[in-house]
Amino acid sequence: MKKSTNNLKISFLGGAGTVTGSKTLIESNGKRILVDCGLFQGLKELRNMNWAPFPIEPDTIDAIILTHAHLDHCGYLPVLIKNGYKGKIYCTEPTEELAQIILLDSAKIQEEDAERANTHNYSKHPKAKPLYTVLDVQHTMKHFSSQSFNETIVIDEEISFQLLNNGHILGSAFVDLNIADKKFIFSGDIGRTEPMLLYPAKKIKTADYIILESTYGDRIHPETDVKEELLKVVQETYDNRGILMIPSFAVERTQEIIYLLYQLAEEEKLPKMQIYLDSPMGVNATNVYNKYHELQNISNYEINRMYEDVRFVNTYEESKALVMDKSPKIIIAGSGMMEGGRILHYLNNHIDNDRNTLLFVGFQGEGTRGRAITEGTREIKFFGEYRKVRCQIRNLTSLSAHGDQSEMIEWLKHFEKAPKTIFLNHGELHQSDSLRVKIETELKWEVEIPHLNSSYIIEE
Ligand SMILES: [Zn+2]
């Protein structure tokens, strides 16, 4: 018997009108499934939303499905667990391992921030509290239930789903959710048409509804040879006898940069500069990459070789000594947008020397130090002081883990017929809107751009 779908409803509780805080709720016949559970990041106004009460009681959610391990897709999980969520968190195996690394780091930062605020007493609250702690993350990890790609996971008689490779970061997946006889495809963050390390995203042919990210919905990535661009910056820094500082995201981007440097070294183009990975999170994430050779589209030989010439900096003492050292070298350190991490210590020592280079290799979110510098600010504040930016600034803009407008349109063209609606989330309004116009013009599909906390009743 065909069940009524009158109760089928989709709500956008995050990642709507912004690229952070992804949370989409699907409800049907009293069941609630949450796809992604991300943290709001960046501007204070957004971060404050992490402290607002969740729109529904967490213990009324039946299952959570994660597309991938980035904080803007999983970073709110410990709050939901703390507030009563009792169910499973479904994702792929690498996503579970990477999410643990990312959540622990997030908890540590929040604990440290709260402690600092209380010591210096600059919090407006009487006593600053972390949003969640390392202990909360440990409780959260018990809810994880990792699954293989392409397997059907049955939640109940009318809800099942599959996780399909989407080529964004290791373990990342589309969620192909069947609920009340309707098929929803959640893109998560969709990778490039030809990812550097991973297999390209799976082409999907049918869907009743698509929920598509639009981070780069208004952009076409430049068609430059990123390896040559990187080589130019390394050579320039080498010629200046300077230090090349690369703030990098621990997951995917760090491994990509190392892969590019490895290729350049194999081609005997790379000047002799020692490469250091000074990022505990980067080292941990790289260990996960080393475990899942079969999910990477490069040879085992390359995976084994590419990290051989990189020195992994583990202890704080080692890092401290390296920070003080002024000899030429390549440093890859977190965090990717310079909101914290060991990169700040390198900046503290080397930002005022024009021999050195600061190289951006990833998306810089609104409100971050990285965004300020890439937009031309030449004075930034860290460790409580304003500092002049005198080192060289370079930006590899073509490196991205997100498909651009044309890549997303290409991927959509594999659908054999139009979905009933395609929702565009995970984008700032100008990004989503630009993609909307393109989809309406090229594919003639029905497009919706949901506002934060908006709901849609799905009808027959
Ligand atoms: Zn992502």
Low-confidence blocks of residues? 1-5
Distance between the termini: 15 Å
Helix/strand/pairing category:
alpha/beta
Strand runs, count: 22
Describe the global form.
globular
The major beta sheet can be summarized as: 7 strands, mixed
The quaternary state of the protein chains shown equals: single chain
- Percent in strands: 15-25%
Q: Mind telling me which CATH architecture of the largest domain this is?
A: 4-Layer Sandwich
The CATH class name of the largest domain reads Alpha Beta
The main sheet orders its strands as 6-5-4-3-2-1-22
Give a brief outline of the structure.
The protein is of the alpha/beta class and 460 residues long. It is built from 14 helices and 22 strands. It has two domains: 9-219 and 401-457, Metallo-beta-lactamase, Chain A (4-Layer Sandwich); 226-395, Rossmann fold (3-Layer(aba) Sandwich).
